[in-house]
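Bench notes, afternoon.
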Amino acid sequence: MGRRLELIAVPDLSLDQKVVVLSGRSFQETAGLETFGIGSLKVIDGPFGARGADYSLSSPAAHFPCGPALGATFDPALLREVGAAIGAEIRLKGGDVLAGPNLNLHRTPLAGRNFECYSEDPYLTARIGVAYIQGAQSVGVAACAKHFVANDAEYRRHSVSCKVSERALRELYLVPFEAAVIEGGVWSIMAAYNGINGTLCSEHHELLTTILRDEWGFDGWCVSDWYGVQSTVASANAGVDSEMPGPVHWGAKLADAVVAGDVDEKVIDAKVENTIRIGVRVGRTDPSGAPVSSEHPAETPSDPDVFRDVARRAAAAAIVLLKNDGDLLPLRDDLARLAVIGPNANVARTQGSGSAHVRRHHCVTPLDAIRAALPSCDVTFERGRDNERETPIVEADVTIEFFAEDSHEVLAVEHVEEAHVVWNGQTPGGLTGQPFRARLSWSFTADRAGAYTFSLGTAGEATLKVDGSVVVTSTSTLAPDQSLFARDREQFTGTVELAAGAQHEVVVDYVSGRHRNLRSVIAGMRPPEDPGAFDRAVAAAAGADAAVVVVGTNMDWETEGFDRESFDLPGRQAELVRAVAAVNPRTVAVVVAGTAVDCEWSTDTPAALYAWFGGQEAGPALADVLFGRAEPAGRLPITIPRAIADAPSSPWWPPTGDTIEYGEDLLVGYRGHDASGVAPRFAFGHGGSYTTFAWGEPRRSGAAVEVDVTNTGTRHGSEVVLLFAGRSGDDATLPPKELKGFAKLDLAPGERATARLPVDARTFAHWDHDTRAWVETQGPQFVLLAASATDLRARLSID
């Protein structure tokens, strides 16, 4: 971590001044003490783009692929580029701290925030996370690794306790955070909402002090998750440095606790020192104590073209070739007629929902990207099936006018691209912190005649009118202290009969009422059912030279706030894939999702790609891979089971009561499949290529294992070599092998390169409860070189 910085003398501050520094002054800014040189810190949500101070109205930002997509690259060098790019845009937003990366693991395929997390494997997560942190902090922005720790589900997320063994905690869930601190030198850590074995993470002294600071040497800033502090004394004594967005439990209450003798003032001094230290690191605090300004620079719109290349390369590098029977891919670019089918084909499903949501610069749908790539081809489109969980959010040019509560004077006007607007403490027109009214308006043309369903979900009250007639009235369904992203709250709906071809005007009148820190409007519209959509899609496929079926999820299904209920592709999309493949033997299925979905349909289609939520460049990147202009360089960072019952966590999922039982212990993901012998649909590390590779014999070379890899095909391509530490014995509670290294090689046709995989003291170590240390595992030591968790290429003994 390096030497500790020389800072101003904390005791020069009064107790009241100290506690001011330790809480927020707004939703995203900490309080500073300008006359003492202590500036305010501004935290900007990531981790896939710099969202800005306002959830809906900040200027657009470069938008990068989701967590598992970045994990699928197996490319730390690329992640350093991504981290640096997002860090640079955080600065343009006037920010100092990037809320990311998310270093939690995919314990179950159904966790709501899996789309934020890199992998089911702690080693891969650590390598990707460290690179991201190094990239962000290289431009002077503090990365904030989150959520510390085992924040692997949205179920009762503010109160649930995770029952997890010490060994699993040490060998799985803490590993990425340990690497973030010791190798990445991360400047900030965010304490999780959940508890560990009965104690909330924000009150867990062993986690926040004994492990994080005393053992790992962390000297940075530990911030609560937003509204994550639920006590005064316990959280202060555990090791949290700042309550955000506070003060709720701190502030004057914290000063009173010191006076009462419940919290030692030296504890407060250490928190202030840590807060000052990060301020110095990001340039917001003067180490000499000279006065500074606590005002943050105004947000500056970023150039939409600056990071387009790295976003496109990342999206392409993440795409996984699941199968390619008969070398169907890449598709010829001289096709006369191509059918593009599916609910994720004509819509840009680039991200999940929640605090990671980014207002992107632009997006191109897969359909439009394919048409642009094949300008002379007759590209037909049919949706076939729907996949929405709720009434689809309106995507349109929405105008928002702002008014004081009792006035008709327009104080500000904004424009957004969808009718999903959240005001998290920031309101235009000088209305921040005050009751206000807003009017959202847009127009649309009815594609077909029938009953159109409109919906409203609000924190506040609203009415929705179509052509002047009230269709929906919404009373507030979100309590003032409820989660911002509780999308499963009640939705108010109404229907209206509309004629085809006519343009209609929609107006939503919103009143914030009693809500102050959180106000929101979500308006949706569902057109009448199209009974012929499925048959038209199958007919289009039957008459085409090839078919591309783009299926998956969207941010209704994958979001902060709740977990998925089903592993299935929603909306009978599997039936659509099978029907298209039955009439066209040149069918390519493409999954656009943020995590694992059931791929049982893959046995019926010759080719399949996993394209993830790919960020703003997802459409062009997919077209690049489909037509061979880029390599499908991704490898699965997760296991896709044949059925949800095969997932190792399934006996303990969904959780009930106040506890999440981590009953599979060490056997998460591929570890559990290895131990049980239950084969997955697609294994961890799985992924094909448009070329072929030959591996040589592995060899020891000092403190590493090496293997030569040759591109024996006719195209440039990427190969990933995985190194697993093997375990001898028949103890069914222990994983037979664990990932301990990987190397990605980019090779031209005929080129050979050497994959070098270090083997160190931790490769064959396990956590010992009695000594509270890492100890060498006894027995024969060997490594397995593999292309995936089920594609083992060589075994090498380690003396």
